[in-house]
């Protein structure tokens, strides 16, 4: 049988650290809202995976791994006897510091995409988090590695034990019915994970400071009992207040 594996990786274009740093205080909800209103991306939310590491927040470019249903002519018995034929390993071999692994595991609740050893390797290589439309195994040990984990669940089964197998590395995938391409920017927190398409990352980052600042100002005003209609979203009438607040705060920095 011809080798049908698909592996890419060296050509991934990652955003610079300076651009990524601009997103450090921006949550997935703000990302989803701005993508919808400003870029026409109506639903960047990866549905299904939820946080298994509450309070953890990550921002970084996506590595991708795609699983497919098993079929005997494509995945014969004994296919993964040799470790280097296991594509889930190859997905992690391409890790650069700051990367996030995003996996289309078809929503399977029977297959543990990665276990503790694989996730430990990923973390040691500089990985920040895993977004998996499926499960991991060894959760008891893996939850404390330091990675952010967004999963559908956990299982004792290994990755090819039941009905799926890894088919392609660093190709566009559908994770939780959301299109994710290698190099897209992932922002994940307790609300879930949102995807910023690679072609919009730089433009998005250019406007993110203003967006974050007026939200901070509006939050302060609402805490004081300010009128929701005046401060959220920021009205034209409240903008002079905001500009004055911004001027005072810039002097303090």
General description of the model:
- This protein has helices spanning 17-21, 28-39, 87-93, 116-124, 139-142, 201-223, 228-231, 239-252; strands spanning 6-7, 50-51, 58-69, 100-104, 129-132, 135-136, 148-151, 153-154, 164-169, 173-175, 178-180, 185-189, 192-196.
- The model has no long low-confidence stretch (mean pLDDT 91).
- The chain contains eight helices and 13 strands.
- Strands 1, 2, 3, 4, 5, 7, 9, 12 and 13 form a nine-stranded mixed β-sheet that branches.
- The protein has two domains: 6-196, Glucose Oxidase, domain 1 (3-Layer(bba) Sandwich); 203-252, no CATH class.
- The longest helix has 23 residues, at 201-223.
- α3 links the parallel β3 and β4.
- The protein is of the alpha/beta class and 253 residues long.
In short:
With 253 residues, the chain is an alpha/beta fold. The chain contains 8 helices and 13 strands.
Structural topology:
Blueprint: E1 6-7, H1 17-21, H2 28-39, E2 50-51, E3 58-69, H3 87-93, E4 100-104, H4 116-124, E5 129-132, E6 135-136, H5 139-142, E7 148-151, E8 153-154, E9 164-169, E10 173-175, E11 178-180, E12 185-189, E13 192-196, H6 201-223, H7 228-231, H8 239-252
CATH superfamily of the largest domain: Ribonuclease E inhibitor RraA/RraA-like
SSE topology string: EHHEEHEHEEHEEEEEEEHHH
Named CATH topology of the largest domain: Glucose Oxidase, domain 1
How would you state the average pLDDT, rounded?
91
Structural class: alpha/beta
How many individual helices? Answer: 8
